[in-house]
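cron nightly-structures :: item 1 of 1
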Amino acid sequence: MSRILEELYNRGAKRVLDLGCGTGRHVVYFARHGFEVFGFDASPTAVELAKEWLAKAGLNAEIRKHRMERPFPYQDGFFDCVISVQVIHHNMIQSIIDTVDEINRVTSSKALLFVTVPVLKDEAEEGDWELKKTGERTYLPMNGPEEGIPHHYFTEEGLIQTFSSFRPLDLYIDSTGHRCFLAEKR
């Protein structure tokens, strides 16, 4: 996140959206660094935990329960940055495309985007998830911690194509084996 932080400071950015903020790890991080932070998550429990963490830390951010495949509750061009860490791939491709359309709508010119997604591994490496193919590069774990939650596995080319309104700045596999995409809105 330090690279994103540096990019945001260099650009004079103000507002950050954490799409699928979970319990608030990145919301707290960016709020501590002086940004106006917004986050949403589909889990009411996660939203409450994020709000509690912010309160305990004496920080402010707007956190709400919201599903990413629905229209975002923000005005056009509102955000200077959108992050989505291990979230946006949890859907079927058409819903992901709808989410990307909303990201495009709510981001300002030259906004930053940071997305991380899993890399499809050999079946043996996926453990006991028993992945069932439900679409092109989309699978449904039949058991395990994310049972029943769709997972779309992007190739590098697929990620660049899906986020075609963003110019890639960096695309790499991190130390945990996740594909990371840092880009700037065209």
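cron nightly-structures :: done
The helical segments are 2-11, 25-32, 44-57, 93-106, 156-162.
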